[in-house]
Amino acid sequence: MSAPLVVSVIALVLSLASISWQAWSWWWSGPIVKVTGASDSPIYEGHQSDLGYHYVQVVNTGRAAATIEAFGVTLPTGLRLIRYSQDDLEAVQPCALPYRLEPHSSARWYFTPQIFQGEEPTKARPFVMVSGKGQKDGKKFFF
After folding, report:
1. Which 8-state DSSP code applies to residue 50?
2. Which residue numbers in the chain have pLDDT < 70?
3. CB within 8 A of 37, min separation 6: which ones?
């Protein structure tokens, strides 16, 4: 094997490794949104709610901001209930939509149990609508 051929092969291998790394980092450089749902009795401005509210929480672990346009719940029957605003609830900090979710931050949107329409909450799935990315589903609610 001649020296120019060896140098060419090494350069080709390093070029492929470099372009693979660039493609992988570009793919993961945007927002990475994770959705969960649970129940809580929140405290806001020193007041704790007597009611048990449910919430959808979004965590952005990516390196870019994401805009959350709506949140909702998918019931076990397949019905999707979408909310474009959070109700005025006692002892809950308001969180208006659309909401810009910065990198490495989180946000919660609370709602009353009536949204489940008599369905079992543990079988429902939370979701959010992310601008430019579409719908991101979460796992089942946990209590």
Report:
1. S
2. 42-51, 90-91, 143
3. 54, 55, 56, 57, 73, 124, 125, 126, 138, 140, 141, 142
